[in-house]
Design brief:
Layout lengths: L1 E7 L7 H17 L3 E7 L1 H4 L6 H17 L7 E5 L5 H10 L4 H5 L2 H9 L6 H15 L5 E4 L4 H18 L7 E4 L33 H9 L17 H13 L4 H7 L5 H27 L3 H28 L6
Parallel strand pairs: 1-2, 2-3, 4-5
Length: 332
């Protein structure tokens, strides 16, 4: 049986971009990949590469886990767990740091971007976290890793580290393959459609949170930046705003972008945005309802406990094998 693995940081509330680019895809994959075991985790260790408020982090871990389930992940089909509750992640992370080279870490685009935003007080983990990310994947011998365009570099590093370790110590890790979603892999900002939708953006109108008030959601869609020619055509370079909205529309419905262009050929942006606003609101309504039901219940801890138990068995077995290869400890 193959394995799929993915994680998301609990550094704040999830956006519509997170849903379309990741969560919605996981829901589809849990049904489509019948011969594949899914491991989905809350990447809380990755969150502490920058300072975190302890209480907020604890709250966000539960919130993100609840949203995973509210968005449709079935605990009977997916092993959902919290990364820090499986200590083998950090242990293998150090092994991967001992496998990687400093130059590889320094070349990582996200490190350079984040370093540029922090003038001082840069934590070592900001440089080395790609090694932990590699460990997350290799710990479970993941065959499939869903990724977006901004994660290609991390997956390539993981593949390189797996091959390097295998060459040095014998076959140990599965070399993972990336899974690229066909629609909605990269949802852009509603106010700056050449930039990815992000909850860290200064303008709250640029993103839609999954738990936003639905009236607010409608207003954000209706005020989204487009262009002046009024033609509803998909052209990310020349018409990034309407192209982004077409991507969202297509991802939340059964319509292809081509079909949407034909449907709205004789209509204006106002009509298109009004329709899309209702589609987004209709998509978020049941998610929000289920989320608050989960947060007010007792089932979430049972789901996370069960997921951690299954993950722990796999992780422990792999780490023992790795330590044996390296000659660490007294493992015979």
């Amino acid at each position: 049986m193959k394995r799929l693995l993915s994680g998301i940081q609990p550094t704040g509330k999830l956006t519509l971009g997170n849903y379309i680019g990741a969560l919605q895809q996981f829901v589809k994959l849990q049904d489509e990949l019948e011969d594949t075991e899914l491991f989905i985790f809350i990447a809380d260790l990755h969150a502490i590469t920058i300072p975190q408020n302890r209480q907020e982090l604890k709250k966000n871990i539960r919130s993100v886990a609840a949203l995973y389930v509210a968005c449709g992940l079935d605990p009977n089909k997916v092993n959902l767990f919290v990364q820090s509750e499986i200590p083998e992640h950090a242990q293998l992370g150090y092994v991967m740091e001992s496998t990687a080279y400093v130059g590889e870490m320094e070349r990582m685009t996200q490190y350079k971007d984040k370093k540029g935003k922090q003038a001082e007080g840069i934590r070592t983990s900001l440089l080395t976290y790609p090694a932990l990310m590699a460990a997350d994947i290799l710990l479970y011998d993941a065959d499939i890793v869903p990724i977006g365009d901004d994660q290609k570099q991390h997956l390539e590093l993981t593949r390189n580290l797996a091959v390097r370790f295998n060459n040095a110590y014998g076959q140990t890790f599965t070399v993972p393959e990336g899974y690229y979603t066909k629609t909605g892999a990269r949802i852009m900002s509603l106010t700056e459609p050449t930039k990815k939708m992000s909850k860290s953006a200064e303008n709250p109108k640029s993103y839609i949170l999954l738990l936003d008030d639905l009236a607010q959601v409608r207003n954000k869609i209706k005020s989204a930046v487009t262009d002046s020619d009024g033609l509803i055509k998909y052209d990310p370079k020349k018409k990034p705003g309407i192209s982004n909205l077409l991507t969202i529309y297509s991802a939340l419905t059964e319509y292809s972008i081509k079909q949407l262009e034909e449907m709205y050929e004789d209509k204006n942006y106002q009509v298109f945005k009004a329709d899309l606003a209702e589609i987004v609101a209709d998509a978020l309504r049941p998610i929000q309802s289920k989320y608050f039901e989960i947060m007010n219940g007792t089932e979430l801890d049972k789901i996370l406990d069960h997921g951690a138990e299954k993950a722990r068995v796999v992780a422990q077995r792999k780490l023992v094998k790795v330590y044996k290869k390296l000659g660490l400890g007294r493992i015979r």
